[in-house]
Amino acid sequence: MERRSFIRQAGLAAAGLFSLRLEALASPKPPYSGVLLPVHNIPANKQLDPAWVRSLYQRTKPTTYTKSKNELRYIGMPAGGLHAGTVYLGGDGRLWLWSIYNDEREGIEPKTVLWNDGVADRQIRNRDGASYVEPAIAANRRVLDQGFAVMVETGGKTMIAELREEDWEEVSFEATYPVATVRYRHRKFPLEATLRGGGIFIPLDADNSGLPATVFDISIKNISAQPVRAAVAGWLENGARKISAKKGEGEKWNHVAKGNGYTRVSSKMDKTAEFSRPDDGTTCIAYIGEGATANANAHPWPVTADFFTTQADSATAEADAKLVASIAGPKKQLAPGAVVEAQFILTWHFNHPLKKTSKLKDAAEGYLYASRFKNAASVADYLAEQFTRLWGQTLRWHKTYYDSTLPHWFLERALLNIGTLATANTYRFANGRFWGWEGVNACEGTCTHVWQYAQAMGRIFPSLESDTRQRTDLGNAMQDDGGIIFRAEYEHRPAIDGQAGTILRIYREHQMSASDAFLRRNWTQIKKAVNFMLAQDKNGDGMTDTPMENTLDAVWEGEIAWIVGLCIAAARAAQYMAEEVEDTAFAARCRDYVEKGSANMSKHLFNGEYFIHRPDAVQGRKKLGSYNTCHIDQVYGQSWAFQVGLGRLWDKEQTLSALRSLWKYNFTMDVGPYIKTHIGGRPYALEGEGGMIMNTNPHNEEKPFGENVTWQLGYFHECMSGFEHQVASHMMAEGMTDEALVLTRAIHDRYHAAKRNPYNEIECSDHYARAMASYGTFITACGFEYHGPKGDLRFAPAFGKQQFRAPFTAAEGWGTFSQQSGKGGWRCSVSLGYGALQLRTLRLKAAASAVTATVGGRKIPASLDRNGEEVTIRFPQTLQLKEGETLKIQLA
Fold first, then answer.
1. Domain of 558?
2. Residue 215's CATH number
3. Labelling 119: which of 227, 470, 724, 808 has CA 20 to 30 A away?
């Protein structure tokens, strides 16, 4: 299963790869299999403006893109429910792409483009970065007609403006997630419009967050000096068999119905053909509120006043014709400065699993949303009836998340990659099983060595992760010897990094549980998985040395720091889990492995600057490897340790030296000079853009990558954002906050809307799963640790601790933590915005000797322990915090 084979096809395996740039390479010119190897050319001095670096810490405002700066055409925010296909909210507020029709093609816009790598034009497929080089444009991918318009009656005139870029002088898009805000303004139009759009997104509620629906919350404000009458209308084309319908195959049908406090128009197709197609299904548009005017057959464009007055309860059209339904809210009188709101819902239902998923028995019955709802109309009915609660909770999370002292741009980049779950990159089958690609329709099987980087889903929708650990990794993917097949049904072997990463995820999923039931129920299988991992250390020195598949699509020989370290972290997690289930003998075995491995890793795999890959004693450097080069993941195990509270695993100073080396040798504010000499990689960062190169040869050693140069070498010359995010999160945890923010900002700027879609971080195809590692940097910025079964919660902000506020998620609830220092000591609070929270201990980084705790003005018994720079607040009785309650802490 070679995931990204274009490099092989491009001839990277040939020795001639390096000869292409012979005349351009600087001295010295070390020999490499008869050709010349490029010289390392990343400057050690990054020449960063100190004022710019300081600005990265500022709170500022949401990133906003505008029409006047030509920044709207690429924007595509995933705006539907989780695992319900891809529907994009565009920069001007209209929906586009509509990848809800179970498309078998790879990526959001399958194509091949030409890219000049500095030597020659190369053909780049979707999985190789085509969407990075030439992003999809909203205007080219509308698919279904859909939109909104506002009408105003003033001074005897009727004026109408559609909520689209062409009708307004200025349109601005506030690029947050899961709700984006679009604003419209024109000097000659008496109304100002604001649209908030997105899917239902409620952390911890995976089911309701998986509705195939987009919500539009529109407000219009009278900005004139005179009273006006105004209304909002929306429309949606019948989407049944939109892709495949031909004349004579049946009739499209729209029908109006009214519910309790809402009006909807449902759309389907009465087919003459019996066989099923991927685009067989239904769509629906609904208006929340009374007094709406619905039209099953809206008038053609441009929009006229008839949209707001014409009523037709049903309509039909030929199978290949366009049939559009509209709903208009009632006209309302608006005084100067007054505001009126209108809410609409768009839903869809296309229950046809891809042929590519035919190996999965779980896929045969279709998708989970289809097992809950029979058609799009029933989705609309459910959402309309629960609208106040579900949309209200979505907006509450949105406010909770962004109401933080952390920089707004940083909060955006940390969270928005979880939008991957609301694209065609993931599915949830009828029996509840979660399943994902690596990137949209590319590389099957919820691949363990890719998905283990993704930190977002485990914190925001932990039930999906825990079920995947139990059902897939410890279930149908587990071999008799404990090896976890890294693509489940789509492979036959484990991957060593995926194995270790899955053990670490199991520990995270245990921590994100309310009790230890998950751990105890799965302990036998967990232990098998750990035993398999420990057995890959053939010589008993605590350092994995069995050749196995890794995420760089190769089998490397020897002792490889990033894999050794990842296994050490996994063994520490296994030790802690064993201690919790009172398996003392196994805990001791894991502890022994960690101690030996950590000591030997520091002794044998640190070269004085950074951690390396020690060749196999027999094979030597015959096969491809990183050897004495500077590899991006070299201390990844310690990075993982900070995500789940494992503490320090090996020498701190060596670890910091490794991170500083990555900064010195691998990070550059302009990758152009590097990728023009070190060719063969894919274009995930281009000239003029900053990033961290995967693997560099800073000392220009001979034959740095082994005797046999294979196609996977191309990966070494790339910038893959998922790997960069994990380094940024580690730097943040280690106090390298400047470097962490600069690296994260480099990624953020690569995805500026003037260049490409801010919501689509690309690796092997679109919306790549590994990019969800970005949430890990948020975790370490907060110094967040949590252990649900123990009722333990910790915050230790990486910066801005004197006045800090940030959101958090726990096993059963989410809310806001805040702290500020003053003359009387520290004041802290834990406010719960949703669900419940059980607390026995609260750990904070603060100097104090006394504590006072209250909830709702009622004093709560609490004691204080000091441990170095931290204090632990203990509650003798488990504190049960409920939604809407706030725990207040005074430290003196």
1. 6-46+404-781
2. 2.70.98
3. 724
On whether residue 201 sits in a domain, the answer given is yes
- Whether 821 has a pLDDT exceeding 60, the answer reads yes
Over residues 323-349, the mean pLDDT reads 97
Q: For the residues 520-529, what does the mean pLDDT come to? A: 98
Q: Say which residue the tokens 């318009």 belong to.
A: 149
CA distance 264 to 284: 7
**How far is residue 8's CA from residue 176's CA, in Å, rounded to a whole number?**
38
Domain with residue 622: its CATH number is 1.50.10.10
CA distances to 149, 195, 428, 653 from 666, in Å:
50, 42, 38, 19
In residues, how long is the chain? 892
Cα Rg of the chain (Å, integer): 28
User: How confident is the model at residue 118, as a pLDDT?
Assistant: 84
Query: pLDDT band at residue 36, thresholds of 50, 70 and 90?
Result: low
DSSP 580-619: HTT-HHHHHHHHHHHHHHHHHHHHHSB-SSSB-EEPBTTT
Q: What is the 3-state secondary structure (H, E, C) of 875-890?
A: EEEEEEEECCCEEEEE
For residues 362 and 446, is the Cβ–Cβ distance under 8 A?
Answer: no
Residue 294: its H or E element: strand 293-295
CA separation for the pair 161, 135 (Å, rounded): 29
Pair 434, 544 in one domain: yes
Do 306 and 417 have their domain in common?
A: no
CA distance 617 to 626: 16
Paired residues of 57 in beta bridges: none
Lookup: tokens for 297 = 């057959």
- Four-CA torsion 116, 119, 125, 126, nearest 10 degrees: -60
The band of 341, judged by pLDDT with boundaries at 50, 70 and 90, is very high
Q: Give the C-alpha separation, 2 to 13, whole Å.
A: 14
Task: State whether 357 and 424 are in the same domain.
Answer: no
Q: What is the DSSP string of 81-136?
A: -TTS-EEEEETTS-EEEEE-S---SSSSS---EEEE-SSSEEEE-GGGTHHHHS--
Burial class (CB in 10 A: 0-12, 13-18, 19+), 140: exposed
- In the chain, the amino acid numbered 701 is E
Say whether 267 sits in a helix, a strand or coil: strand
795 inside domain: no
Residue whose tokens read 């004495």: 628
Which residue type is seen at 738? Answer: D
Helix (H, G, I), strand (E, B) or coil at 739: helix
Residue 728 lies in a domain: yes
Compute the distance between CA of residue 819 and CA of residue 829 in angstroms, rounded to an integer: 7
Quote the pTM value: 0.95
Kindly state the tokens that stand for 870. 């931290």
Whether the Cβ atoms of residue 726 and residue 633 lie closer than 8 Å to each other = yes
Helix (H, G, I), strand (E, B) or coil at 660: helix
CA dist., res. 289 & res. 50, Å (int): 53
With 0-12 CB in 10 A as exposed, 13-18 as middle and 19+ as buried, what is 616?
A: middle
Q: Which two tokens stand for residue 504?
A: 């670490």
Same domain, residue pair 389 and 434 = no
pLDDT, mean over the chain: 94
Burial 646-660 (b: 16+ CB within 10 A, else e): beebbbeebbebbbb
* Cβ atoms of residues 74 and 699 within 8 Å: no
CA distance 826 to 817: 13
pLDDT band at 632 (very low <50, low <70, confident <90, very high): very high
In a domain, 117, yes or no: no
Which of 340, 366, 396 lies at the terminal end of a domain, its last residue? 396
On whether both 301 and 174 belong to a single domain, the answer is: yes
Please check whether residues 349 and 443 belong to one and the same domain. no
CA pair distance 452, 454, nearest whole angstrom: 5
Higher pLDDT, 456 or 26: 456
> Residue 550 corresponds to which tokens in the numbers above?
């890794």
Q: Are 775 and 406 in contact (CB under 8 A)?
A: no
